[in-house]
Amino acid sequence: MRAAEAYNREHKEAGRRNGPLGHVGLEVLRELYRLVDYKSGRLDPSIDFLMRKLRRSRDAVVRALSALKRHGFLHWIRRTEPTDNPGAGPQVRQISNAYWFDLPAKAKALVGMILGRGTPTPDDHAQREADDAAAVEAMLAQAGPEAAARFIAGDSEMGDLLARCGRLLESSASPPSGLNPA
Which pLDDT value is given to residue 168? Predict the structure, then answer.
């Protein structure tokens, strides 16, 4: 919800009363977050229910849902059920939509920052990781192929196979005497 509010503020045009989601859009999104069954994921309120709950007109709720969908915060699928009408006439009627939440890329970045995952790594930590990677590279360059394979694959069946390949490479690395390697 905080990401949607921040997105709405960030993309608000100067001189406009509302951002792209609008205050009604934020109210609808807040209500949908309250209504969702987090165990099953079920979220299927009717527009009439949202109108009564939020005390907003049908047009306001429909526009809010449309804005939420257009900006990537909400998606839905239209659902129908059979009417069992004999003969002519509609054979299905629409029932409430099934909704699900999503986040646009910019809002995902905001959520990461809010939860502390979007903060940059400290310089000393980045330098320590680079130093460690350089030390491993230097060690692997000095080690033979068998030892390098054991280090990379560990003590597993794959490690055994790679170590055997390393031994074979080492044994065939020197050219037979008297032959030009070039």
Answer: 78
The pTM of this model reads: 0.58
**What are the Cα distances from residue 116, in Å, to 112, 119, 173?**
6, 6, 51
Instruction: Give me the domains of the chain, ranges plus CATH numbers.
Output: 2-81+93-114 (1.10.10.10), 123-171 (no CATH)
Burial (0-12, 13-18, 19+ Cβ within 10 Å), 163: buried
What pLDDT score does 181 carry?
A: 57
Residue showing tokens 């001189």 = 15
C-alpha torsion 108→113→118→124, nearest 10: 180
**Is the CB of residue 43 less than 8 Å from the CB of residue 57?**
no
Q: Is 92 helix (H, G, I), strand (E, B) or coil?
A: strand
**Considering the chain, what percentage of its residues have pLDDT values greater than 70?**
89
Q: Look at the alpha carbons of 161, 166, 171, 173 in this order and tell me if their dihedral is positive or negative.
A: positive
Would the pLDDT of 176 be above 70? no
Q: Is 7 exposed, middle or buried (0-12, 13-18, 19+ CB in 10 A)?
A: buried
Torsion of Cα atoms, 40 then 46 then 47 then 51, to 10°: -90
Cα distance between residue 118 and residue 54, in whole Å:
34
